[in-house]
Amino acid sequence: MQEALLTQHPYIKVALPVPLRTLFDYKVPKAIALRHELTPGMRVKVPFGKSSRLGVIVALSETSDWNPDDVKPLTSLHDKQPVITPELMALCEWAARYYHHPIGDVVFHALPVLLRKGENAEFRTENWWFTTTAGQAFEIEQLSRAPRQQDFLKAVQQHPNGLSQQAASVLDLAPAAGKSLEEKGLLRREPRAFNKAGEKHTHQTQVPPTLNLEQASAIDALLDHRHHFHVSLLDGVTGSGKTEVFLRLIEQCIKEDKQVLVMVPEIGLTPQTLKRFEVRFNTDIVLMHSNMNDRERLDAWLLAANGHAKIIIGTRSAVFVPAPKLGLMVIDEEHDASYKQHEKFRYHARDLAMKRAQSLNIPVLLASATPSYESLTNALQKRFSWLKLRQRAGDAHIPKMERVDLRGQTLVHGLSETALTNMKLTLERKEQVLIFLNRRGYAPTLMCHQCGWIATCDHCDVNLTVHKRANKLHCHHCDSQKALIHQCPDCQSEELFTVGEGTEQLETQLNTLFKDTPILRIDRDSTQRKSAMTKLTQKIHEHDQAILIGTQMLAKGHHFPNVTLVIIMDADAGLFSSDFRGMERTAQLITQVSGRAGRAKKPGHVLLQTYHPDHAAIECLCNLGYEHFAMNGLAERKSLSLPPFYHQVIVRAESTSEQEAMQLLNALKNDLTPMLPPDVHMVGPYAAIIVRKAGQHRALISIKSAHRAPLHQVTERMTQWLEQATKQHKIRFAIDVDPLET
Ligand code: ADP
Ligand code: ZN
Ligand code: ZN
């Protein structure tokens, strides 16, 4: 920075990772200003209270709101280049305003963990092996006396684009052999940026299938809009070839030397997704998800930031990845609730992606077989183009859905006779059965036969789930665990029994019922370890007949070609939920899980077990399908003035004492009601459905309006009020804009 500039901008405004909705002013010491060019987005070390903190410069400023003598100088500059680009800084500032969240927390959320902790934004490199001209022409047979060198050279010869050290290790090639070949002048080494996803060691490029008519017209429409901001909703039944469509679009973007961000809901999806991209694109791909360690994530981030990674596949937080040539964002399974962060900074990655695309003037593609009611409304109102795929791709057909009336039936481990008969027939045909039971663990309740005692969590108002294999009682709300007990703590009776059934129990019971059939359970417990999901998927593909048991993890985009029968154990589970989104979610889950049936050549069949076969919702979903169901649901939401027709904000408060949160919100309501604009409605305060969670008593107020502007103003006022009111108390509050849960 030059001296003239310093007189213009003697101050910087810094975002710090503290829960205060403000920026902090610091002076730029002359010594730093003369040697460095300070720009927004760079990290700085600054004094804060009695210690020092790492912060991010948000703006340079001529003035400070504080007395100049009170403004401290920054301690040191941390970066040569901004780690938050101007584009992303604008997005962060917008998000902080829209979600009423402290800017410092937003900015730090946008950075990989290691950068938050002060790591340098520099590449870690690894060696890549290449053949020299002599090495490429070298006859392998001449090395028959050195088989390790022979293997090494052969492998590198087969990789004209080079072989990474990682890939060499995966192929079990001896490093010493590589060095000997280097000394002989047959190989050379070159350091390159490290990419975890770059483990792949073959560059096979697959020939894509010929598109059907629906796919072809969707891709035509998408290509028309590929150079400007435009949102398309690719609404295609499960297995209709949505992925194939967006692969084509991505192909075109890569040809035009752009970067593409592909967002996926959860890690369970990524092994398969990555594979599909790898066999299609001979280009650099990086992954960003929570199963990677911090260093691997930073490596991926750096490759995206310098434009090297052409395709970035990531979960929610990848929406903040810097990508200088970003030309397209794809949001797969756009209806998935995991795109919304449910704690602290409660943003929705789909909505932020759209905002980001708008400022970059690039297109967004949302894909789903069960679009969210929000996106359907946008499509109906023509804000999005609505591209429909109604046929399954290739030779596959939409599975037939059949209701099984459970009333008065004898059930075996929760399975009806119809279900069991169909399972046997399916397995005899050497096909696979998938059973959907959205409850992990052995049983949701442990009870005493003598006195009726029930095992409950010490910190939450919920029952503890029995996990027999782990020998634990587990709270699925706060994650606390204790050892499984065999004696009632109240009456000392040893007659404890479980009520209800979870996936672990079903697995045990089916193992005795179907002795010779492999039974594979897919839930959060069985996939906790790294690469567990990949191994399970492999096993599923290895066997002909098998029974898969799973929770909602199974609903997420998996492709199991030999599954022909899907059984929904309890279709009623979400039907009577107190949350107005319960129906939407249940229909999405059932449709997605059903969509796992008959995805290849063999026809699929779905059995829905229900005690309410004539319930209008179940009947509609079975006979008319998701779109019809959603249109009815939307009409109902409209008549009840619910989202997406009304916008909603929830103010949440929690405290360790029983009354405080509720008292605080009552006071807030009393103070604000008189100034509430007529088109903003306030409901509450009321207690959360599970009042106590992790030791906190929780209450909330909901405000809604048909218009965003007044809602935003009221929220702003409430936030200020709450910041003042909670200064002296141990009450925490959170603002949840466009909440997905109540
Ligand atoms: P979706 O993403 O809608 O679930 P996919 O793109 O995964 O669907 O396609 C389902 C299956 O059909 C995949 O195995 C895919 O390779 C195949 N497929 C997609 N399009 C075609 C096509 N036009 N012809 C033949 N097979 C196709
Ligand atoms: Zn007892
Ligand atoms: Zn708990």
Automatic annotation (TrEMBL):
Segments forming domain Helicase C-terminal: 483-646
Note on cofactor: Binds 2 zinc ions per subunit.
GO molecular function list: 3'-5' DNA helicase activity; ATP binding; ATP hydrolysis activity; DNA binding; zinc ion binding
Binding site for Zn(2+) 2: C457, C460, C475, C478
Family note: Belongs to the helicase family. PriA subfamily.
Top-level taxon of origin: Bacteria
GO biological process, alphabetically ordered: DNA recombination; DNA replication initiation; DNA replication, synthesis of primer; double-strand break repair
Cellular component terms (Gene Ontology): primosome complex
SUBUNIT field: Component of the replication restart primosome.
Function: Initiates the restart of stalled replication forks, which reloads the replicative helicase on sites other than the origin of replication. Recognizes and binds to abandoned replication forks and remodels them to uncover a helicase loading site. Promotes assembly of the primosome at these replication forks.
Cofactor names: Zn(2+)
Protein name (Swiss-Prot/TrEMBL): Replication restart protein PriA
Organism taxonomic ancestry: Bacteria, Pseudomonadati, Pseudomonadota, Gammaproteobacteria, Oceanospirillales
Residues where Zn(2+) 1 binds: C448, C451, C488, C491
Keywords linked to the UniProt accession: ATP-binding, DNA replication, DNA-binding, Helicase, Hydrolase, Isomerase, Metal-binding, Nucleotide-binding, Primosome, Zinc
Pfam family, one: Helicase_C
Catalyzed chemical reaction(s): Couples ATP hydrolysis with the unwinding of duplex DNA by translocating in the 3'-5' direction; ATP + H2O = ADP + phosphate + H(+)
Segments forming domain Helicase ATP-binding: 223-389
E.C. designation(s): 5.6.2.4
